[in-house]
Amino acid sequence: MIRWHRKRGAFRAVALAGVLVIVAAACGGGGSKPAAKKAAKPVPKPKVAPRVAGAVTVGAEQFPKVLNDISQEGNSAWTAWMVGPALARGYKLLPDFTLQPWIFDKDCTIAVSSPFTVDCTIRPEAKWSDGVALTADDFKFTFDTIMNPKNNVASRDGYDQVTDFKVLGPTEFQMVFKQVFAPFRQLWAGNSTTVLPKHVLEGTDFNKVWNSCICDPKTKKPIGSGPMLVDSFTADEQLTLVPNPGYWGPHPARVKEVVFIPTPDSDTEVNAFRSGEVDVISPLPGLGLHDKIAAVAGAVYQTSLGPNWEHFDMRSDVKGLDHPAVRTAIAYALPRQQLVDRLVKPSNDKATVLDNTQWMTNQKEYQPNWSIYPASGDVGKANQILDDAGWKLQGDVRQKNGVKLQFTIGVTAGNQVRELAEQVIQEQLKQIGVQLKARNSEDILDTKLVAFDYQTIIFSWTGAPDPFGGNVEWLSAAIPKPCSAKDASAGNCDSSGQNFTKVRDPKVDELLTAANKETDPVKRAALYNQADQELATSVVTSVPLFQTPTVFAFKSTLEGATDNSTQDGFTWNIEDWTFTG
Question: What are φ and ψ of residue 491, in 5° steps?
Fold first, then answer.
């Protein structure tokens, strides 16, 4: 499954992720002044409940409207980070991007090669917070829920390859696939693969039952299988986690309470952290962010480079952009190194230009397939391509057959980093006769992207191990139907894919399909790199810019917290947190 930040639930196998940690010892102001900033607006004060002794307060930049993380409407990073500690998965994603069996007692195995059958076994001690055992029936119920066409789930990708789900006993099940399916582990890894409690949810309406609570709908008591429970939730105000006294894992949670409150933008989030209103933040990287956090006495700053990547997208059916030469010329001109130097390195000095759409720079499988486009941009080469393709400069804009190379560009309004990236790209593309007009909005991802109401756009995908989940960005069959703003708000968009640039390339389809069937990891990685080479040379609709660093800051009175740049996020080990306030 794919999530934007919002969240990308794509599955990626990563070798190592470096984490930079800085503990601040001083207090006072700091931070560089953002370039081209809009007129200052009053910073909204976060809604803060009375502090509870021993409770950790977290500032949340995006607050969920609903809690069901595997629904379309609940498919966001922050929802997963908040609800994830209450709901265990088959595997836990670790900060080094390996998979650790969680509900499973060991790694799932291939039981039969033909038909391709996978066997999974469950820890006998696993149970729900009401004392009922967590069994293979719960996995089967979850699978049936996902595959039920009446349910508005975020994705069925991968699950739709299962032809038979066999419950062999309380602690064992098997999945029989249509064909060899190499990324089978990813169906139960990551916080978008929540296992549902059959004994409390059977017969309920999936599209409504867990919108406002993670609870038994009959008793309204919290239900969970992880170290925490969702004790209370009020949309746009507060979500509270408390320890699950019946947690079956290595040890119960050590914090008394974790309270999430909305801090709707990075400025509000950082100000709440500096004033002591919140103890933990995980803002998007921003201009001067590191200095502002480092200036807070006792602040711990962590940043990681994980499978979260920023990209510049071009819709391939827009007049002008439907010419491959135009997209290729734009790719040559993009000043990617300038974006990294100005926007990313201040948050994480290990950041570099990203030259692959399938693997990240710190993965052993990474090949710089997009390095054919110079990191600093090559305006001369771009102009030559457009000249050769017959695009003539008339005034400031190139034209051909009555079509002008004038397009809109969109980012999330208020995101200072992306707004500056937008300006840098606009200025660079003027030099090749391509004009971009800003068309930003706060809901550009939630309504404009899904409606194909854009021409070029900058945003990021957020991921997890294995490129399989990213297939829905590239496969021809993964172009969804346009979704209206009304349907988007209701979570009723087409979930068949997220190919928003409308890639239609038979070679890409063939290579990605072959990768799903290849169980040899070396050969499989090579297939993904071949697909990436095709995307770089023939398709050129989504140009990788850089890995988006995660930023995780907390007071030094919180111990045990560690950043995790996979989709499991910074709450991945919440049971290990201890807080002295």
Answer: 70, 30
Which amino acid does the sequence have at 197?
P
Q: State how far the Cα of 313 lies from the Cα of 121, in Å rounded to an integer.
A: 42
Q: What span, in angstroms and rounded, lies between the C-alpha atoms of 259 and 256?
A: 10
Q: Write out the DSSP string of 218-232.
A: TT--B--SSSEEEEE
Q: What domains are there in the chain, each with its CATH number?
A: 3-26+53-304+550-579 (3.40.190.10), 308-547 (3.10.105.10)
Q: For residues 277 and 238, what is the distance between their CA atoms, to the nearest angstrom?
A: 14
Kindly indicate the confidence band of residue 491, based on its pLDDT and cuts at 50, 70 and 90.
Answer: low
Neighbours of 294 (CB within 10 A): 18
User: Which tokens belong to 345?
Assistant: 């390195």
Query: Strand order of the sheet with strand 257-262?
Result: 19-23, 299-304, 550-555, 280-281, 55-60, 257-262, 238-243, 228-234
Residue with tokens 């029936």: 137
Please write the tens of the pLDDT for every residue from 134-187. Answer: 999 999 999 999 999 999 988 888 999 999 999 999 999 999 999 999 999 999
Cβ 221 vs Cβ 17: under 8 Å = no
- Per DSSP, 450 falls in state T
Burial of 468 (0-12, 13-18, 19+ CB in 10 A): buried
> Where does 212-368 show beta strands of DSSP type E?
228-234, 238-243, 257-262, 280-281, 299-304, 308-314
With tokens 């109401």, the residue in question is 453
Average pLDDT rounded to a whole number, residues 454-463: 90
Render pLDDT for 30-57 as a digit per residue (tens, 0 to 9).
Answer: 222 223 333 333 434 445 445 555 799 9
Q: How many angstroms separate the CA atoms of 458 and 24, rounded? A: 33
- Judged by DSSP in three states, 299 sits in strand
The one-letter amino acid at 555: K
Contact 435, 405 (CB under 8 A): yes
The neighbouring-strand residues paired with 352 are none
DSSP string, 92-109: EE-TTS-EEESSBSS--E
CB under 8 A, 24+ apart: contacts of 397-406: 397/433, 397/434, 397/435, 398/432, 398/433, 398/434, 403/319, 403/320, 404/320, 404/435, 405/320, 405/326, 405/433, 405/434, 405/435, 406/320, 406/434, 406/435, 406/436, 406/437
pLDDT at position 33, please? 25
Give the CA diameter of the chain. Answer: 73
10 Å Cβ neighbour count for 140? 16
pLDDT surpassing 80 at residue 225: yes
Place of tokens 């090949």: 367
Asked if residue 360 lies in contact with residue 307, where contact means CB atoms within 8 angstroms, the answer is yes
As a whole number of angstroms, the distance between CA 426 and CA 441 comes to 17
Q: Which has the minimum average pLDDT: 22-36, 84-98, 324-338, 472-486?
A: 22-36
Q: Cα(549)–Cα(332) distance, rounded to whole angstroms?
A: 24
Cα of 49 vs its chain's centroid, Å:
29
